[in-house]
Specification:
354 residues, alpha/beta, Arginase, Chain A
Length: 354
Amino acid sequence: MSLQDKIQSFNPNDLGKKGTNIFGLPFTVQEARVVIVPVPWEVTVSYGAGTANGPKAIYNASMQVDLFDPYLPNAWKLGVAMTPISSAVKAQSNKLRKRAERYIDLLASGKDYQKNLQMKKIRDEINSACASMIDFVKRTTSQHLEAGKMVVLVGGDHSTPLGFLHALAERYSSFGILQIDAHADLRDSYEGFTYSHASIMFNVLKEIPAIKKIVQAGIRDYCEEEVNVINASNGRVVTYFDKQMKHALFDGKSRSALHREIVDHLPHHVYISFDIDGLDPKLCPNTGTPVPGGFEFEEALHLIQTVVESGRTIIGFDINEVSPGNDEWDANVGSRLLYRIINMMAVSNGIQHL
């Protein structure tokens, strides 16, 4: 069946059906304009686990997402498809997660990973595997970027987008990151893991000079080391702490004005890194490290819409740290975020009607 035949025969008002792609859409990866790359990886998570199951849970929950979005008429015609979830990546994550838990237990008992030979062996093995995962993500996302696709990454933990950012840096000489998160993720090799989920933005600063600005919003759980990194960044990192944001609103600043102020720090090309724990934890209770406070659902989307309406271009994004727990709630929220942000990315790239 041709792409046009699929569009003609598809009913966007039906429930998603088995045998279709994400959101119940009929498109293949080759046909789609937007390709979602799932990365089921959570080796270095330091508190709650389960994010490696996030891509599958989001895929399953997406079948219940209604496809009408007034922000982009006939949004479903854009063409969105998710690539198969890698069983090899998932198996490697599961294997190394068990070793990481043993390592973290030793760390918590007071052992020094720089002196304990068993810990050093585990650390080196995990650092090597994480570097391989990053290379896998870079190669995979590069392949789809080369094919002219808009690309989205779904984690997994927050270490997973680094390879995607490297791939984008080979195509854009200058861009910025809007990071929605409860955590600053600016720790240097947290717990001895070079590519820890808590070190993603530290590694961005160190490895990717094309990223000229990181604008963080909703940050409310951070250490002194991270504040020092922010202060020493010469403006390369601009952080809007959740307390600062809430107090500005309490004192009468409008949400729209605050969001415009945040977006004004960003360059023209913008990548969005969305850690689900940037939301109020009632929306993501099973995420690895939930923190009180944060964005409401529409508040976060309004911030991203402000990026679009400023005339900036979203060149890619990720959603990470979705952990399904015992029900579909977290994935329900994650799948709806995914659909809405895809549509806003399309509008920012000049797609107004379909």
